[in-house]
Specification:
2 copies of one chain form a homodimer. By secondary structure, chain A is α/β, with parallel strands linked by helices. The first copy, chain A, has a single domain, classed as Aldolase class I (TIM Barrel, Alpha-Beta Barrel). In chain A, about 45% of the residues lie in helices and about 15% in strands. Chain A has a 9-stranded parallel beta sheet. At the A-B interface, helix 8, helix 9, helix 10 and helix 12 of A face helix 8, helix 9, helix 10 and helix 12 of B. Chains A, B: Pfam families: HMGL-like (PF00682).
Chain lengths: ~300, ~300
């Protein structure tokens, strides 16, 4: 583990990737409070919401109100998901300074999810990325299904590498590699990251794991050993009730931070405040926290 | 990850370390069925029960009936926990051929848990180990609290090493190093294992993690990288309801096997049958399985 980074930046995706996959609707005021609480933990990157059409993601239909309502702390980044120019316009109207675009490494997933091939989805981003560049807006790129696809099964590594390389070439400052369905194990995660890192600089890569099969922390450890230093996670493991059958929540930020601090890796995050926020969110979602460290630390 | 072993032996501790820590009492018939189901998965080591006094562990008061009732498959080991000569006698009466003894690396934990110092507890085992040797009975040794203690906090590595060395010297063929309260993180787990392996052969060591803070699989991965090839785990994550506050169940065997198979490591275990057994046990315990892989695979 000699290659472990000294510091890791957590990209907190609970308010977006978490809430958009929860059945329970959270009020606009609570979404704002969530982001503000997360800011108070010391997180540097908080994905605040999504400007995808409310037709597709009703949970985040109030994106503009949420973004306008949060208190942005200087130095903290608040990216929002943007699918196209219309979403970009809505985001910019409320002062968004960083966006995220998304596509999958799996052709089958892209077809089913956004009714477009990978190349068509990349073409749709081109004007958004051109405008972002002109406006000085930073763009993060997501590649999903990097370790498996619910429709096509195996996803060729070459496809993951190609999509990551294209997004980076189009101007994304960071590419988040997502195991959307959580099927990956550490050896495969490591091999995937190494393959991408051969074509995109490692310091422009992030990893994004879901804990569907309980593998997320082990996968993150394997990727830290390769040298990645940006990790996506969601407070309280938001994004799928951990007690529902087939749940597939994001890895819990509390569990990630607990591991990183135990490894002597700095995050700048106050774990106690994060745990408190996780329990607060779980209360709003009407369930227990999906974070094991969160549960353990709440009673210790 | 070049040092990963090609094959790992799982020591299934659900029927003992799992059930003794569950609030729900399981019937004798169900305990027998559990062990028989586990045998059918291909597991090679199944800790069947405990001959600790029923005064202390009422959940396993039927140890003799359980052991007498299971169908022992040739080549599979069925160790049972034995605290003293009286327990040894009870175990031998029903044909036990392998036992496990236990002590802690923490003085404070030993005092509170068994009202004896570490040295006193080792002295208590001496006659049991002498008789086991004479009878041709294999003995496994547990060292608990190797990464932290609920009473004294930090546990010096030197204490872990000393206790492991003594148990090995007294004739234990294998020493299981247990993070009883689940506080460990991968770097500490690795350092602990390396320290012990400097004085006890690595192939006589096993690791035993609880998933209290969600760290178990990452810790196991770190220990596999050191070269350990024996891992304790409990089907369904038995040993503390995963939905209760401060739960501290064993790492789920299903999650471990899923990871190992994903890493290309053989276990000889049929994961589908293990998942089925985990759901069956959860039903008997009146709760959902504590295994994430178990939940995911049950619906896929």
């Amino acid at each position: 583990m000699s290659a472990l980074p000294a510091r890791v930046r957590i990209v907190e995706v609970g308010p977006r990737d978490g809430l958009q996959n929860e059945k329970t609707m959270v009020s606009t005021a609570d979404k704002i409070e969530l982001v503000d609480r997360l800011t108070a933990t010391g997180l540097q990157s908080i994905e605040a919401t999504s400007f995808v059409s409310p037709k597709w993601i009703p949970q985040l239909a109030d994106a503009a109100e949420v973004f306008a309502g949060i208190t942005r702390k200087p130095g903290v980044h608040y990216p929002v998901l943007v699918p196209n120019e219309k979403g970009y316009d809505r985001a910019r109207e409320v002062g968004v300074e960083e966006i995220a675009v998304f596509t999958a490494a799996s052709e089958a997933f892209n077809q089913r999810n956004i009714n477009a091939s990978i190349d068509e989805s990349l073409a749709r981003f081109a004007p958004v990325l051109a405008r972002a560049r002109a406006d000085g807006v930073r763009v993060r790129g997501y590649v999903s299904t990097v370790l498996g696809c619910p429709y096509q099964g195996e996803v060729p590594l070459a496809d993951v590498v190609r999509v990551a390389r294209e997004l980076h070439g189009m101007g994304c400052y960071e590419i988040s590699l997502g195991d959307t369905i959580g099927v990956g194990t550490p050896g495969k995660a490591r091999a995937m990251l190494q393959a991408v890192a051969a074509e995109v600089p490692l310091d422009a890569l992030a990893v994004h794991f879901h804990d569907t099969y309980g593998q997320a922390l082990a996968n993150i450890l394997a990727c830290l050993e390769v040298g990645v230093s940006v990790v996506d996670s969601a407070v309280s493991g938001a994004g799928g009730c951990p007690y529902a059958k087939g749940a597939s929540g994001n890895v819990a930020s509390e569990d990630v931070v607990y591991m990183l601090h135990g490894l002597g890796i700095e995050t700048g995050v106050d774990l106690a405040r994060l745990v408190e926020t996780g329990h607060w969110l779980a209360g709003r979602l009407g369930r227990e926290t999906g974070s094991r460290a969160g549960r353990a630390l709440a009673v210790s």
